[in-house]
Amino acid sequence: MNKPPRDWLKGVLSAYDTVVIGSGLAGMTSANLLAKLGHKVLLAEHHYNMGGMATWFKRKGGHVMDISLHGFPCGMIKTLRKYWTQDISHRVIQLKNVRFDNPQFSVNTSFDKVDFTNILRERFGILREVIDEFFFTVRDMNFYDEVVMTTRELFEKYFPGRTDVWRFLMEPITYANGSTLDDPAITYGIVFSNFMDKGVFTYQGGTDHLIKEMKQELLRNGVDIRTHCMVEKIYVDDKTVQGVRINGQDIQCKSVLSNSNLLTTIEQLTGEEHFEPEFIKEVKKVRLNNSSCQVYMGIKTGETVPNVGDLLFSSDADEYCTDKILSKDVTSRTFSFYYPEIRPGTNRYSIVSSTNARYQDWANLSESQYKKDKHDLEQTTLDALDKYVPGIRKKVDHVEASTPKTFKRYTLHPSGTSFGTKFEGLKISRDLPNQINGLFHAGSVGIIMSGWLGAANYGVIVANETDKFLRQLTPGLVTASA
Amino acid sequence: MTIEEVRQIILNILADIAPDEDISSIDDNTKLRDQIDLDSMDFLDIVMELRKRFNIEVPEKDYEHLATMAGCVSYLTPLLKDRPLAS
Ligand SMILES: Cc1cc2nc3c(=O)[nH]c(=O)nc-3n(C[C@H](O)[C@H](O)[C@H](O)COP(=O)(O)OP(=O)(O)OC[C@H]3O[C@@H](n4cnc5c(N)ncnc54)[C@H](O)[C@@H]3O)c2cc1C
After folding, report:
1. Residue nearest (by alpha carbon) to ligand 1 atom 16
2. How many CA atoms, within 13 angstroms, populate the side-chain half-sphere of residue B74?
3. Alpha-carbon distance A197 to A269, whole Å?
4. What is the per-residue pLDDT for B86?
5. How far is A477 from B51, CA to CA, in rounded Å?
6. Residue A464: how many CB atoms within 10 A of its CB?
7. Torsion over CA: B69, B74, B75, B81 (sign)
8. Ligand 1 atom closest to the CA of A291, numbered from 1
9. ipTM (interface pTM)
10. How many CB atoms lie within 10 A of CB A312?
């Protein structure tokens, strides 16, 4: 007997102030804030889980694997406290042991300014004044600055020819936001400075706990949350948002805040015909950021892993090189070690290996080749890990890999992009409401606004604009002027 | 609202945004940023709070007027002077 399909929109209202498309950290944070500001918010997510890239999965044998909980800057504590709850922010803990191991150097660090300064002096022999000036320059980089310098030029200026120093400064950021030496230096400077402030932090309880807490808070604030709900269309008339179509059903709204990919929002959900041709010309220039592969390794019940570091940037490549980092022929990996402290009381360990990857390297393989390549990825990762955790094959009882195709399937990002778009996407994202009244985008764009902190904060910035828009629709808002 | 009341409202907003800071000793003529740990997101919060509590919109070009307590008070008092103190 076939059960009738469940109606995931049962009881939905016919109209909302805002429909938020997607429950990534940007979408959830903006939905929460808009609801707290008094607006009627519908949050629609196509997947059965919320969180977007901030996600996890469970496997037989009690394994829980985190996807993007390798670490975030301490600024996340404040963001969680201000836009979520005290309790959530109190769960943020520091990861103190970050390791590098490559043919150029092996270094342990707490990944903050004080320790980096020491290492740059003692290990790399850089003069104190140069280090201070470098830190001052990157700290001072501002999102509103004119883009002039690339990261390569920045490094050339302060550390000419010192590819070992470049690697030390750059490799972690490449993993954190997909940026390369040829991206604007500001994309490097802002993210690097955020980390250098106090180090790398994580969430005690794991991603599943965080997202569960966020969901409760969204419900307390009155957000109408709908999972299994695909937004198929944003209706626009007379340059103004009218509503959306979700799972075939039309719903009216005054504004849309899309956490779906920027290009998808413009080209597919809204339709190019609603934008100025000049704007679309700029949209066509927006490059997507790269994607990722991961290998998840679950440690058997009762087995342990010695503390070999929280984050380990390991590489066999002679020098830092973006092409090599992206290559399917993997030489560089980031290992995240999840010890029992991450989920107190469970006494379980897991290890996740991440590599940056290109969608096109994985998209067009035959089914058997795809399977084989995934299997090879798992095996070579275990081989590489054995150097740090001898006998790893005897300790694991679950190994599984994900590829750019996996990320695309779950988050709908074109080419499975892990970090949204390159720098030029930010301007387009900010400009959407000038093209169409009531259309907003928040989510990883421009490299700067990606990562957990960047996405959540961007959600706040755009929620502020959405709130302003909604309040202007009813009389009473007084614009101040000096 | 009197000037004192406007000042108190700004202090209340700051206390919510930066609960760990001592705001009782704020000097009115020194930049807020130099006295308490405020970043650009915090200034955005002030703007959102003003909109939420008083329906006042501070345009982006005017954010600089919020840099000091004295600046906040003289910028906001003309808008708030005819309003009763919100409960
Ligand atoms: C492998 C990997 C590791 C990472 N590690 C870290 C890390 O250690 N630290 C860190 O800070 N960041 C990390 N990141 C980056 C970080 O996870 C992301 O930048 C951030 O989570 C993105 O949030 P977002 O709000 O932009 O949206 P996303 O997480 O991309 O979410 C978008 C949501 O929208 C939904 N959606 C899209 N279209 C529709 C539609 N039409 N209808 C309904 N729903 C839709 C998707 O299903 C998804 O839930 C990592 C990313 C990856 C891929």
Report:
1. A451
2. 10
3. 39
4. 58
5. 8
6. 20
7. positive
8. 53
9. 0.92
10. 21
